[in-house]
Amino acid sequence: MTTLDNPDISESYKSTTRPLDGTLSHLTEAQQQALKDLWPIKVTRDQVKATHLSVAGISTSDAQAVDEWYAANKKIASDPKLQTVQDKMYLSGEREAVVPGKFKPLFSDDRGTRLFANTFWQACMLHESPDAYLLGFLRASVWKVDQAFNRVVVSVGWRAAQAIDELMWEGELGMHDKLLNDGVLFRTGYDKLGYPINIIRVKLNIPKERGDGVVERYAAFALEQTSIIARDNGERATLVYDFDGFGLGNVDKGFIKTLLTFINDSYPQLFSATIQYVDSWLFSGLWKVISGWLDPQIAKRTVISKNIDQLENFIDRDQIITRMGGSMDYTYKYVYPTKQENIKMFDTKSRLRAESVLKLAVDAILQTTKDWVAKPDVAGYIDQPRAQATDAFRSATLALDPYIRARFLTERTA
Description:
Layout: H1 7-15, H2 29-38, E1 47-49, H3 63-72, H4 74-78, H5 85-91, E2 113-115, H6 116-124, H7 130-140, H8 145-161, H9 164-170, H10 177-182, E3 185-190, E4 196-201, H11 214-230, E5 237-242, H12 253-266, E6 271-277, H13 281-290, H14 296-299, E7 302-305, H15 308-311, H16 348-374, H17 384-404, H18 409-413
Parallel strand pairs: 4-5, 5-6, 6-7
Antiparallel strand pairs: 1-2, 3-4
Helix pairs in contact: 2-8, 6-8, 7-8, 11-12, 16-17
């Protein structure tokens, strides 16, 4: 496959025009009706047990308890295959709590369980609006409501079971230290449609250098970060796999399959384009396996670029880093988190106030959506009360955000 094999995506980038069909305010009557049909059947399911992708270990701000934990688990905390950012900081003498030790889920959920409805609303917080969240699954399902509903159920159930909210609360503290310091994945520049670029350096991904569970945590965390960044950039990003210098030791089918499974199930519309930047005979065999794992809609947005000229079909040269043949001067460096950047997470009273505002916004969306769905006339899409409720939800989301998750590198270095 070359860039010419996907004419639809190539045409969008050639014209530098974002495809808007099926997005907010760009719906046909049939698409709007599909959205209406999807809404009444969503937030009605029961509790889901949270088994946690978040890192196991110490969960307290008590300095003595932290010291005791590390004294008893020094071997694990020192193991490069398992060592997290938190472990590295503690063993290096940086022992101030970067985030509060005791995690508390939103909406009074218990740490060991999540209500499906509550997790649904938290997923919506990653998007311009709840409609935008649902529309992503409708587009991925080619506007088949039943399929879209099933995908929402799978995605929200996964988020609840894996405690994605707690994963983001811990932030980079729970991530594999070497993966972050090596810069296996980093963000820099924008593509021709104005979407932020994510680059995975396949050469730096060495499976034998990490332990069990590392990949799952890192993949979920990276996709959540990308969703947060994309929220203000058209809800899309571009993913580039840089295969320069990769060898057999970097072939990691487990990581690739995990990442693709997460994307297919829970982030099907996140990436505007996925670019395999590679010119290697070794890749051809790997691609035969990878291509079979792709969701058909994602496959349509996946291309192979063999050189800088083909890559320029999607990214201007001044947005391509020099190491990849472009003119952007960029050197990756990991900067460790600090308490100060997460200081609002320690302000419980302000968090509760912000959370109560979000609850009111959720109630308003539910009521105005109920009224909107009941209207027989589908022309006009969003009526004024519902538009106001959506704006209130968006504002409440942004206000609550700094109280419920740690900042990450892109925000830290801006």
